[in-house]
Amino acid sequence: MPSAAPDRPANGMTKLTNCRLVRGDSLVWEDIWVSSTTGKILRSQATFYDELILPDNTIDLGGRIVSPGMIECQLNGAFGFNFSTLLDDMTQYPENVRHLNHQLIQTGVTSYIPTVTSQTADLYSQVLPYLGPSGKARRAEDGAESLGAHVEGPFLNPGKNGVHNKAVLCEASSLSDLEDMYGRSNITPDPSDPERPTSVKMITAAPELGQMTSLIPALVDRGLVFSIGHSEATYEEASAAVAAGATMITHLFNAMRPLHHRNPGIFGVLGVAASSLPGFPPRPYFGIIADGIHLHPTTIKIAWNAHPDGFILVTDAMHMAGLPDGTYPWTNGQEEHFITKKGAVLLLEGSDTIAGSSITLIDCVNNFLKWSGATIPQALRAVTCTPAAMLGVQGTKGVLDFGADADLVIFSEAEERNNDSAHGEGMSSKLVVDEVWKFGTKVYSRCEKGKDGIL
């Protein structure tokens, strides 16, 4: 139960006790102190023993699990709003983002990179300024925090377009082609204000088209993550992209040349043979959609075993996530299409083309636990410290270390029976989001849910 020390000024400190912290690949029985004033995780021993400071509140978590807040690296939209949308009144766009942020945080996602699909330059210029990093003000009440936008396209291979509109796909021959498409200020740091981040954090493109591979170093120098995706790249072309600075693969296996025994394609850069070559750069990170639709569970386990340190769970969720079954409009480029949602399945109307997902990130974690035999800390790494490292925010996000942002998820643990023989039989752990803390403040409780998901 919470307890507060009487007759002294509040200091914004909370001590969480009787809990298991996710540290590396272990669950460690240890207290954790957080500050709502600084928004940071405190060094509890020094705070209590050296400075003789008592917390405002001490909360007994009854043995529950404390994890860093989850990080989502591919979210096209959710709860009725798609980031690739031009509104009649664009002044309402940030309000839609705010509502999504408040809904998203109650799923355990405290940080994310909003994804904009293949669109026109006009759309990018209008929406990207609203999707840049949003945590500078460090307001817990703002909900989930953008770490910068992810532009997935339009420099994609038309042969692997998925649901991306082929009419807007194009090739780049110079850096100015990307600046003209996304807006120069959205991908180029301001020399007069080097502390101001660009709106875009990650670009997904097909490296085999045009001069894209030769442009990767310049993009990386600007602090952008280059991700290989929607691509027909051979193993050699993918290797060249990695050597040039590509550090991520967008939804591995989906919308790319499949693994072949004579040419392993993009998947091959995760292999031991490639990483052991003299001077070869580290193997890239890669996204995996664990919804049971995009990939077979055994395929997911193969990918994890191939390179567990690069394994990142993503949802690729569309605006139908969190909505009931039905048919919903989607503006694809300049054309309006419709997507049908039936259960977890999203299909482009009138086809069998998968159109993203409607799963939550915690459901991806629980599916991975069920299918892989991974431990809880191993599964949570794929949505915390691994994506944080990929995005270059390790030490600030994705960990429970002193000085990191106090973005936390408190999980209770349940046992779930696996009855599907394809996924394995027996019992597996299931995590339930009980509480979410942002910048040291509790913003969501499953038992105390307030308006719009924020306490």
UniProtKB/TrEMBL annotation:
Catalytic activity: N-acetyl-D-glucosamine 6-phosphate + H2O = D-glucosamine 6-phosphate + acetate
Residue ranges annotated for the Amidohydrolase-related domain, each copy included: 65-441
UniProt keywords, alphabetically: Carbohydrate metabolism, Hydrolase, Metal-binding
GO molecular-function term, one example from the UniProt record: N-acetylglucosamine-6-phosphate deacetylase activity
GO biological process: N-acetylglucosamine catabolic process
Transmembrane spans: none
Name of the top EC class for this enzyme: hydrolase
Superkingdom per UniProt: Eukaryota
EC number(s) recorded for this UniProt protein: 3.5.1.25
Family of the protein in this entry: Belongs to the metallo-dependent hydrolases superfamily. NagA family.
NCBIfam families named among the record's database cross-references: nagA
Protein name stated in the entry: N-acetylglucosamine-6-phosphate deacetylase
Upper classification of the organism: Eukaryota, Fungi, Dikarya, Ascomycota, Pezizomycotina
